[in-house]
UniProtKB/TrEMBL annotation:
Keywords: Arsenical resistance, Cell membrane, Membrane, Transmembrane, Transmembrane helix
Record-level GO cellular component terms: plasma membrane
One Gene Ontology MF term: arsenite transmembrane transporter activity
UniProt topology in membrane: Multi-pass membrane protein
Family classification: Belongs to the ArsB family.
UniProt organism field: Desulfosporosinus metallidurans
Transmembrane segments: 6-22, 34-55, 61-85, 97-114, 120-136, 148-173, 179-203, 273-292, 298-316, 328-347, 367-385, 392-415, 421-440, 452-475
Pfam families (alphabetical): ArsB
Record's protein name: Arsenic efflux pump protein
Length: 480
């Protein structure tokens, strides 16, 4: 049925997904797809001309995401996220319910202004820090940790620049960034709000009505003499404490865990510098959409903003870019490029053609079926294979159907809702979910896949269906 090229590529794809999810010995996520791409190139399946074509497609999206990562690193270095944690506790004013909504809002805004992976990496330590400071019980910690992660990941849907796969797929289907936001922001916000409300209802018995009220100065105290101020799991032995880096490891005296670093060594905030940096981030984020409407490549605007922030910090604090060079996930470009090579070969080998033949009729029938089928397909694929390759496969499948432009756009947006929201059913669905679970495990917080599935199976399908229906009615009413 399949020739050698198809079988070889399919085998490579399956192995790539398995190793991405397994990550043996904590291997960097760019390594498995890079090795697979090298094998495909050496086998002569993809010519050099296509390699340059692929590089041109993924480089812009990757650079845009990297620029947001750089901006988040600069903001972290001046104490922005630490200040956010302090304000969350203070503004909650002793209300556990208010704290829940503030955490959800923080996670939403962090993804909106940066990206979902960065939001998870930064927000999770902040939330762990907060629930530790407040001495919450394990069942009381879970609603904050879980809802924060779900909202962080789902919030990449409203604007395409918060997610690498969304940006690449946007280019594949030839959709304008401003058109994407105009059509997507309301339906995705409806879905995110629905998920947040459903999670609140699900966890209503576990969210504490009242929490401790602490002055900001107390939040900066060390976890030291009082056993109650250290997470319960960290009291077992010194080795575990050293693992959490709440005490210094002589072998690695400067390697402090992010949570301990934020909790113990909170920097002094220069408010005038702080306000300028926030203004730069907001203006650059808005500039992405203005640039898109003027035909300016959005990666140029992102790079300009990142360089402006680095330069301003250097001018005000005398801190050079060495931390940026160390902390920026440069492998994103290699990761995106390599996955695209594998998916591109799948497309050329005709495997996406099978999906085209099966789904062209139902999807082209009407916009409602295009919404529901596309969103449902990407939900299933993302939870089986991860949403990054699934989003690209979905985009290639849609472009191969010969759909009219309206149906193509609504089907693509439904794809994104399935990949960004529907993928939350299992931790396998997104790399951000896997990063989140790894962070929790590293800090002694055990949330199993079964624990996660008990919640997501009750919440995410409802949120997804409401999102897809909102997309259909919103687009039909306002655009078509």
């Amino acid at each position: 049925m399949f020739d050698f090229t198809t079988l070889f590529t399919l085998t490579i794809f399956i192995l790539m997904v398995l190793f991405l999810l397994w990550k043996p010995h904590g291997v960097n996520e760019s390594i498995p797809p890079s090795i697979c791409a090298i094998f495909i190139f050496l086998a002569g399946i993809v010519p050099l001309s296509d390699i340059f074509k692929i590089l041109g497609i993924v480089s812009g999206a990757s650079i845009t995401i990297l620029s947001t990562c750089v901006m988040s690193i600069v903001l972290d270095s001046i104490g922005f996220f630490r200040l956010a944690a302090i304000n969350l506790v203070n503004r909650a004013n002793g209300s556990g319910v208010l704290l829940y909504w503030y955490i959800n809002l923080l996670c939403f805004l962090m993804t909106l202004f940066f990206n979902n992976d960065g939001s998870i990496l930064i927000a999770t330590p902040i939330i762990i820090n907060i629930v530790t400071i407040l001495k919450l019980k394990e069942n009381q910690q879970f609603p904050y940790l879980f809802s924060g992660a779900m909202i962080s990941i789902a919030s990449s849907a409203p604007i395409a620049v918060s997610n690498l796969a969304n940006l690449i797929a946007l280019k594949i289907v030839g959709m304008d960034l401003n058109a994407y936001v105009a059509m997507m922001i309301v339906p995705s916000m409806v879905g995110i709000t629905t998920i947040s409300l459903l999670l609140f209802y699900y966890f209503r018995q576990d969210i504490p009505k009242r929490i401790m009220v602490l002055p900001a100065s107390n939040i900066d105290e060390k976890y030291s003499d009082s056993p109650s101020s250290i997470p319960r799991h960290s009291l077992e032995d010194k080795a575990h404490l050293r693992h959490l880096h709440l005490i210094e490891d002589k072998a690695h005296p400067r390697h402090l865990h992010l949570i301990a670093d934020n909790a113990i060594h909170s920097p002094v905030i220069d408010m005038s510098m702080f306000k300028v940096c926030i203004a730069i981030v907001v203006l650059i984020r808005g500039g992405l959409f203005l640039g898109a409407s003027l035909g300016i490549p959005i990666e140029w605007i992102g790079v300009f903003g990142a360089l402006l922030l680095i330069g301003y910090r250097w001018y005000r604090k005398g801190v050079g870019p060495h931390d940026i060079v160390k902390k920026t996930p440069w492998h994103f470009i290699l990761f995106a490029f390599s996955i695209y090579v594998v998916v591109f070969v799948l497309y050329n080998s005709g495997l996406t053609g099978v999906l085209v033949k099966l789904l062209r009729g139902p999807i082209s029938a009407n916009h409602l079926s295009a919404c529901l089928i596309s969103g449902g397909l990407l939900t299933v694929m993302s939870n089986l294979f991860n949403n990054i390759p699934s989003t690209m496969i979905g985009a290639f499948t849609l472009t191969g159907m010969g759909l009219d432009i309206q149906t193509l756009h609504i089907a693509y947006l439904a794809n994104i809702l399935g990949a960004d929201i529907g993928s939350l059913i299992t931790p396998m669905g997104t790399l951000a979910s896997l990063i989140w679970m790894f962070q929790l495990k590293k800090n002694g917080i055990r949330i199993s896949w079964a624990d996660s599935l008990k919640v997501t199976i009750m919440v995410i399908p409802i949120g997804l269906i409401i999102s897809l229906l909102s997309l259909y009615f919103w687009v039909e009413w306002l655009f078509f």
